[in-house]
Amino acid sequence: MIKLHRSDAPTWLTQNWEQWGLEYRQKKQADPMALSHEGKQVRSHLIKPLVAMTKKHCSFCDSTPLGSQIRATIEHFRPKESYPHLAYQWENLFACCDICQTAKLKKFDEALLKPDEIEYEFKRYFFFEETTGKLIPNQGANTEDQNRALLTIKIYKLNEFERPEARLWALELARQIQTLPVDKLPYRFMFL
């Protein structure tokens, strides 16, 4: 999970998110996919700017490329089931891979790390073990930061589903092909 610099919300979202949140709260029992903008589901309008903001990476595990081999989903950081009024708030939405979204589902904790927080930096919270491919809490961080990292690893299952092996493969590939720009590589945190 690298630092994410959130772009400005699309104007159409800024103008509608609060109303859509109210409508979502009312309609979620019946048909939550019914909300539309310009004749298309709101999701289809949102996914493109969210994926562009992350440069086609998952906001949480940093796998790539979203939209081709890995399906891009929209993660509601604060779950829309518990926070329906935030279902369309720009700052609550992230491009996410299926694996991270399925791992998290409706789980939420105030201590969960959010990649666009002002103070968030990968190295403050995490350490990448080059021998195992695992992410671990930064042992030099304070206890609160270590606990937040551990919670994030657990909720998004960042060390499960062969993710450590995939990181090691990407690291080896990058070492062999040193001319690739970092934004083209998965797991960019390994190279920063």
Descriptive account of the structure:
This protein is an alpha+beta fold and 192 residues long. The protein has helices at 11-27, 42-53, 98-104, 122-125, 143-155, 163-176, and strands at residues 36-37, 40-41, 72-76, 93-97, 126-128, 135-137. A two-stranded antiparallel sheet has the order 1-2. A two-stranded antiparallel sheet has the order 3-4. It is globular, with a radius of gyration of 17 Å. The mean pLDDT is 87.
Give the low-pLDDT segments: none
Strand order of the largest sheet: 1-2
Note the run of SSEs as H and E.
HEEHEEHHEEHH
Approximately how much helix is present in the residues? 25-40%
Distance between the terminal alpha carbons, to the nearest Å?
Answer: 12 Å
Secondary-structure-derived class: alpha+beta
Reported for the largest beta sheet, the result is:
2 strands, antiparallel
Mean pLDDT: 87
Oligomerization status of the protein chains: single chain
How many individual β-strands?
6
Radius of gyration: 17 Å
Strand content: 5-15%
Number of helices: 6
